[in-house]
Amino acid sequence: MDMQRLPTTRVIHPSILYFGTPVLLITTRNPDGTANITPMSSAWALADRIVIGLSGGGQGLANLRREGECVLNFAGEHMHRGVERMAPTTGRDPVPAWKAAIGYRHEADKFTLGGWHAEPSLSVKPPRIAECPLQMEARLLLEINRPLEAWRDAAGGYAIVELEVLHVHAHDDVTVAGTQHVDPRRYRPLFYLFRHYVGCGTPFGRTFKAEV
Ligand SMILES: Cc1cc2nc3c(=O)[nH]c(=O)nc-3n(C[C@H](O)[C@H](O)[C@H](O)COP(=O)(O)O)c2cc1C
Q: For the chain, how many structural domains are there in total?
């Protein structure tokens, strides 16, 4: 690019730094045996590990801490309305004061709220969400609790959680038949981008390591 034509910049102070990550719906088991769904998007993967960031005080985090297992269900583009119906809710009862103050309410049955169906998992107790194109059963390896100045007086910090993925379930129609591959042309994840929902854009081709 010609130096004369480089874009100009300015320093900004955005209220959040959600630069665009897939929406995960984490299923965990409540103490009474029912299932909870935690929508979240702060996640990254390396090998068979997925590391997630969860703010303190949530029901999903408490369940994960207690039972040590969960399912990471990856929302498809088509699921954005159900995700947003769930957005102002928590499985926690009573609702933490800071959440109640900004309009959150308790919701015991998030499957019905989302309009989704539960399917049993192979190795963990929480169910999978049948409508999600990818569903990963996982177990807790490590939790690190961190204070967060920006959320002082509210969530009281956040947890960095390392999970080991045990099984990956994939809808037939997002896999390449006869292989172990997900077909990136047909898998259409939902993304969370600066508090907006967006789908997949135009594919630009593959990296040199891609096998399909
Ligand atoms: C699209 C989306 C992404 C979110 N991402 C995160 C996240 O990465 N980490 C987090 O702690 N909360 C995130 N939240 C907020 C939680 O869903 C919210 O705190 C919820 O009340 C947790 O539910 P639970 O208390 O039943 O676990 C997100 C919410 C939505 C709708």
A: 1
